[in-house]
Every structure is written in C-alpha cells, then in structure tokens.
Amino acid sequence: MIRSIVFILLFTALTSGSKSQDLRRLQESFIEAEYFFLYGEFSDALPYYLQLYEELPDNANLAYRIGLCYLNIPGRKNLSLSYLEKAAKSTSASYREGTINQRTAPYDAIFHLGEAYRINYRFDEAREAFLRFRESLLPDDNENILFVEQHIKMCGNAKELIAKPVQFREENMGPLFNDEKSNYNPVISSDGNSFAWMVELKFYNAVMFSRLNGNKWTPPVNITPELQIDGNVFISCLADGGKSLLISKNDNFDSDIYTASFDGTVWLPATRLNRNINTKYWESHGFMSEDGNTLIFASDRPGGFGGLDLYISRRVDGDWGPAVNMGPQVNTPFNEDRPFLVNSGKTLFFTSQGHYNMGGYDIFRSDLQPNGLWSTPANLGYPLNTPDDDDFFMPVDNGRAGYISKFRGGSENFGKEDIYRITFR
Asked: Where are the alpha helices (DSSP H) in 39-122?
C-alpha cells in the first residue's frame, strides 16, 4: 500500500513537471509570435501561431491571431475566414493580451470577421458581422459607433459601385520596375523623366530610382544608403524635376516628413522638415506642387476633423509656413491620407476611409471650384477601388492617368505587388 502511494505521488510530480515545461514552451513560442505580430510582420508571426494551433485547436485566441495574419497578407486573405469565424463564436469581454492561457478571442474578432467577409465580396455577411459588433459597444462609445456604422454603409456602397464599373486601361510596368518582391509607392516627377518607388527587401524597404535616358529607363539604383535614413521609410513625392524627394519615416509611434536633394552626382542625406510641418503627432505623405510653393500632407494633430486630416502649407521666405487644414469638404471623422495635387494645384487625389467608400481606404478625386472650396470628393470607382485597402495613386496627365501598385496573383504579377500604369478611358 505504501509503495502504491509513493508511486502515485512520484507520477503526479513528474506529470506536473512535464505539464509545466510544456506550458513554458508554448508560452515562449507564443511570445515569439506576438513580437512579430506587434510589429506588423504577419508572415513571420503566422508559422508560430499555426504550430501552436495544431497543439491547441480549441484556442479561439489563436484562431483570432491566425485570422488577422492572413487578413494582412496579400493573396492569402481568403484564408482568414474560417479562423475568424471560429474566433467570433468564442469572444469575451475579459480578454487578456500576451498569454497562451487566453482561450477566448476579443470582441474585435467579430469586427475583423466583417472585414474579411467584405474583402472577399461577401457583403451581406459582412454587414451582419458589423451589426453584431455594433451591439457589443457601449452606448456612449461614439467614436467606435461612428466607425462601425461607416463600415456598415460600405457594404451597400460596394454593391452599388461594383454594379457600375469604371473603364480604364492597365499596363504592368514590367521587369525593370517589378520583380518577385513587393514593389510599391510609385512616384514620378512632373516632367516625366524621373521615377522612384519602394521595394521590400529582406531586412529593410529600399528606395529605388531610375531616370529616363532617351526613350529608355536606366537600370534602377538603390539610393537608400545615400539618404542615410533608417527605419520604416516611405517615399511620397519626386519634385523639382526629380532632384528633390519627400519621405515619411515612422517608428510605429511617431511619423515625420523628410526631404532629400540630388546634387547632380549623389543624393544628400535626408533632413526633417520644419516644425510647421512636423509635430509630436503623426505626419505622413508630403507632396510638393509642380511650382514648389505648396506642400500638402496628412497629420493627426489636434484641431482636425478626426484621425488623419489633409493640410496645406505655402512657402514663406524659402521655408514652409503654417499648415492650414483643408476643411470638411475633404476631411472626415476618419483617416485621409496620400494626397497629390495636379493641374496647377486645382485637382486633388487622395485616399480616405470616409466619404462614399466601398471598403478600407478608397481613392478619391476633388476639384477646386471658383468659390475657393473643394468639390465633394468622387470615388474613382470599381475596380480601381476594391473592398480592400486601395491607398496609393500617383496621378499624371492632369489626372487622366496614374500609377498604382497592386497584387494581382498568379501569372499576372511578377511578385507580391507590382507597379501598374492606369489610363482612364
């Protein structure tokens, strides 16, 4: 009898120790996944979550994380649905971040399920998910109520826009500008002789540059080392005949706008724009007019209409003067970003989560009227805009054409995202 009791106690101790080690191993793997997830490296986080999910298939929080990863990976967003559907069935108000012991998903899973349905053109199911998420919000949570109600409207807008597609010609820019990696943020100088874009490399995102020599583009050059600007950088404008470059740099907590100049031989190190432009808040995507006297950019500084707003600054004594909000004709309670001015500053293209929108960010056009106000922004239409984020359009030829980056999938693309020229019919 005594030997049996000793055996049971020993077995219990060994089993408990084994479970403790196993839990520690799972938690360590989970923290690795969370690290990549936090910094938006969804392709790197996904394998960790999937491996954990094989061992813990009833964990709705892991299903939620996997669904969000797929939702943020081009070409794989359809795979998010089954995971988010499972996560949305097991949500909890007492959700805790950062632990493998969290078995239920947050209420946000229902909202993201709505996004997944919408992106996959299942608009009625998307609307039902958004309505369900709306019920989970507190009556005084006005900001989130307004946000989800905009998403509910998007489902109806998407159906209407898809029923009336716009006509345009689309031309892939070819292997000089596209490869097996993501190529994005295409910008061209107003004279059409300089072209720059971003390419996703293994350890950083590089700025590529090419000039038109005769009727051929020169082989692209990675000018990132010359700019001497580290971190998450995004180009937004080539000005002054391709001799000036505007760049935004963010560290996930703050973003500022920089400029760099070409001295005829090399690009000089990028420098931050003045305090009229950059604040302690988020400033992104500056664009300079053809004459070099107007700067338009996005910022979430206080005093706006909500989220990122568009602002304009004019040159004063050679530097940028105070920034002026572009007003409620352009700005909404949601985010406006990626502005471009063409047609001597009379035509504005930008992206927005507001206005008459079919999902995520859409691309809009507004024209300056004789009374000095901007016209009601017009959605550029489907299929240029889609139920997913469409957040960059570089207009040329006074808005009759432009450059975008898109993931098309299959043999239509060289890589993850390719650069295309769009010409409206």
From this structure: 42-55, 60-71, 80-88, 108-119
Q: Dig out the tokens for 355 from the structure.
A: 């206005």
pLDDT of residue 230: 85
- Domains of the chain (ranges; CATH) run 22-162 (1.25.40.10), 169-424 (2.120.10.30)
Question: Among all chains, which residue has been given the structure tokens 């709705």?
Answer: 60
* More confident of the two residues 323 and 231: 323
d(CA 144, CA 215): 52
Q: Does position 11 have pLDDT exceeding 70, yes or no?
A: no
Residue reference for tokens 């000036």: 244
User: What is d(CA 243, CA 194) in angstroms, rounded to the nearest whole number?
Assistant: 9
Work out the number of other CB atoms within 10 angstroms of the CB of residue 291. Answer: 11
Q: How far is CA 365 from CA 163, 201, 235, 329, 395, in A?
A: 20, 32, 21, 12, 10
Residue 412 per-residue DSSP state: G
pTM of the model: 0.92
For the chain, what percent of residues have pLDDT higher than 90? 86
In eight-state DSSP terms, residue 368 is: B
Selected residue with higher pLDDT from 18 and 299 = 299
**Cis before residue 383, ω within 30 degrees of 0?**
yes
- The better pLDDT of the pair 6, 391 is held by 391
Neighbouring-strand partners of residue 324? 312
